[in-house]
Amino acid sequence: MALQLHYFACRSRGEPIRLVLALAGAEWEERSVPEQQANGRRQMPPPPSGRSPQYLEGAAGDLSNPDAFCFGTCPKLVDGDLELVQSNAILRHLGRRFGLYGSSASDTAAIDMWIDGCEDARQAYNELIYGLDGPPFRDDLSNESPEVAAALAEYAPKAAAVLAPFERRLRSGPREYMVGAAATIADVAVMDIFDVHVHLWGESSLRDSPGGPFEHLHAHRGRVASLGGVAEYLASDRRWGRINGNLLG
């Protein structure tokens, strides 16, 4: 039975999971959680035209159903009889399952540290994205809107601060990967959190931003993106065009 990922029809917290599955060469199916939740806790715009989501139906897609989503959140991974929520728990499970979690206990500890660092960066990023536009979401905002541009300028020093530890790590050596000589789940997490920041400003603008030019993070992003299964996934129509649950990012 193929693995199943249950998440919204966007990248966001589901994307590192998809990238790890692609890196591992795993087969997986995707079932989308409906954007309009009956309990009103989340009001996302529908996905852009193009790829059509395969939605979960009824209670299976209801975030308020504790039998489907025990913490009321997604993503969820279904791996045979195992059902996991919490995105970083899913990453760690996949790392163990596919041998992408380092070759020693110290490697695993370091990978955990970098994943937790990515979570800190994700929290800062999400405060920006959903602080500007949260449920119910607006359809008149974009990265080019004046109020968004002003918020991005204010966020830039914070972005530089949360990205700096990853740049320093890769610069020391220098290193091709975050831990060890091969890609792990930490590399996918770092690549993804840097990628969403690149999309905020554009690659050239981020190079010129405070704390830039993030030379080693840019190189690392390209390196991970070029790995076999990852490159194939990134070039496919399986990747959602929308980054977040709103129209920003």
Automatic annotation (TrEMBL):
Descriptive protein name: glutathione transferase
Reactions catalysed: RX + glutathione = an S-substituted glutathione + a halide anion + H(+)
E.C. no: 2.5.1.18
InterPro entries, per the entry: Glutathione-S-Trfase_C-like, Glutathione-S-Trfase_C_sf, Glutathione_S-Trfase, Glutathione_S-Trfase_N, GST_C, GST_superfamily, Thioredoxin-like_sf
Signal peptide (residue range): none
Entry function: Conjugation of reduced glutathione to a wide number of exogenous and endogenous hydrophobic electrophiles.
Entry keyword set: Transferase
Protein species of origin: Polarella glacialis
Gene Ontology BP annotations: glutathione metabolic process
Enzyme class: transferase
